[in-house]
Structure formats: C-alpha cells, structure tokens
Design a protein that fits this description.
About 75% of the residues lie in helices and about 5% in strands. The chain has about 190 residues and is mainly alpha-helical. The protein has one domain: Arp2/3 complex 21 kDa subunit ARPC3 (Orthogonal Bundle), CATH 1.10.1760.20. It has a two-stranded antiparallel ribbon with strand order 1-2. Strand 1 and strand 2 form a beta hairpin. The longest helix has 29 residues.
Length: about 190
C-alpha cells in the first residue's frame, strides 16, 4: 500500500514535470499571453484519469504553481493590471485554469473515446477560465484589435482566447484518443482503477 502511494506520487511528479517542459514547446504565442503548445496539458489530464480526481487535482494544482512562476518570468506583472485585476487574472488564468486539467476522472469513461472527450471537457473548462479572465481583466486591450472589438469586449475575449485554446483543445483531444487507444496505455489505465 505504501509503495503504491509512493509510486502514484512519483508518477504525478513526472507528469507535472513533463507538462511543464512541454509548455515551453510552443507552436504559436499570442502577445498578451496564451499559446498553442505541444500537448502540454495531456500528461496531467491522463494522470487524473489514471489515478482519480483527488490525485489529478493535486497534480493540476502543482502544475498551476509552475505555470504561475512561468507567467511571472514572462512578464505577468508588467501587463499593467490593477492589483484587483491582477488577483483575478492569477486565480482564473493560472490556479483555476491549470488545476482543473487534472480532473479527468470526474468525466472519464472506460473507453479511449470517452476519456478523450473528458480531456476535451477539461480543456473547454480551461477555455472558460481564460475567457472570463479576458472579459474581466483584459477588455482594455480590445481596442488594439480595432473599434469593433473595443465596443464588444466579450467577443474580443472569445476570439482572443479561442485563437489559442480551440486549436489546443482539438490537437490535445486527438492526441489523447491516439495515446489512450494504445493497448499498453489502456491496460495501465484499467489496472490503476
């Protein structure tokens, strides 16, 4: 029993480290944050499916801390947000958005298709976090996209966050299905439950 818990913690640490490393492999990056990465959200999502929602929640939270520190090094505090807006941004764009990526076991099914759809649901929830943050915190940047978006901050946030989260969601969901359909992975997931 003790060895199983240790193994689960080690696996979680490896998945968080892998997710964090993959977050630096960016296909596309937007100017005020947000990027399409090389499947950076897949490791923690699969870990959550494999080990349950509590373990996944813990791994997701640890990943959120790493992503927050990455945000700091990439200029989070230079965006010109008021202190209140900065707190909202940190909670929505970092802590909540990345923590929920480990909750795959809440939505996951037994088949690779259902598990991939669970991961898609998690990434959609992450998109909602970024969307709400965009409306609340980053609406002032809408004018950079033109007069129309300056008047329609909700549409601005939808387009801005959709520009990176929709491709990330589609690519990660497709990759999740391929990975989860692998017989070796399927056996390991079935054994973990």
């Amino acid at each position: 029993m003790k060895n199983e818990k240790t193994l689960m913690l080690v696996e979680g640490a490896v998945m968080v480290a892998l997710a964090f490393a993959l977050s630096y492999v960016r296909v596309f990056t937007l100017p005020q944050g947000g990027s399409i990465t090389l499947l950076s959200l897949l490791p923690v999502s699969v870990y959550g499916i494999r080990n349950g929602w509590k373990a996944g929640l813990g791994a997701g939270f640890v990943l959120s801390l790493f992503m927050f520190f990455q945000g700091i090094t990439e200029g989070l505090f230079a965006w010109g947000l008021t202190p209140k807006m900065l707190v909202v941004c940190i909670v929505l764009d970092y802590f909540l958005a990345y923590t929920i990526t480990g909750l795959g076991a809440l939505f996951g099914g037994k088949t690779p298709a259902k598990q991939a759809l669970a991961i898609a649901a998690l990434l959609f929830a992450k998109f909602i976090c970024h969307f709400v943050s965009g409306v609340i915190c980053f609406g002032e940047f809408a004018s950079q996209w033109g007069e129309f978006f300056a008047r329609h901050k909700v549409l601005y946030s939808l387009c801005y966050n959709g520009a990176h989260m929709i491709p990330e969601l589609l690519i990660t969901t497709a990759a999740a299905y391929v990975v989860l359909k692998n017989p070796t992975v399927s056996k390991k997931l079935a054994r973990a439950k």
